[in-house]
Amino acid sequence: xxxxxxxxxxxxxxxxxxxxxxxxxxxxxxxxxxxxxxxxxxxxxxxxxxxxxxxxxxxxxxxxxxxxxxxxxxxxxxxxxxxxxxxxxxxxxxxxxxxxxxxxxxxxxxxxxxxxxxxxxxxxxxxxxxxxxxxxxxxxxxxxx
Length: 145
Description:
Blueprint (H helix, E strand, L loop, with lengths): L3 E6 L6 H7 L4 E3 L12 E6 L5 E8 L4 E3 L3 H4 L14 E11 L5 E2 H5 L8 H4 L5 E4 L1 H11 L1
Parallel strand pairs: 1-3
Antiparallel strand pairs: 1-8, 2-6, 3-4, 4-6, 4-7, 5-6
């Protein structure tokens, strides 16, 4: 059985939108659920901030492991000293299946949805990896098409 997740990224830490639109196989930090996230799982990529929402759909292609950023990924960190998120970190590789950066599913849209308003990313947005229930996954799938 595959799981469905929301993986959150902050544009202040890493350019999430560029990562989704320019990289075919980015890696993503695993901060929660490291024993449950696995290859084949579906991921909705969430960008935080003023324009919060889902900007991509991906598939996990590796088990969690200690991977370093690629040169292309490093280029998407904002200027200044290296981020605490750079370097070898517990991460998974993703395959970007659908780039929603030009048609993002906005946080406000989810807030007004009878089922999706209860997503953990809406109720408790602190974290990186959020589990989605099968019912929520079905609703997100419908909206994302």
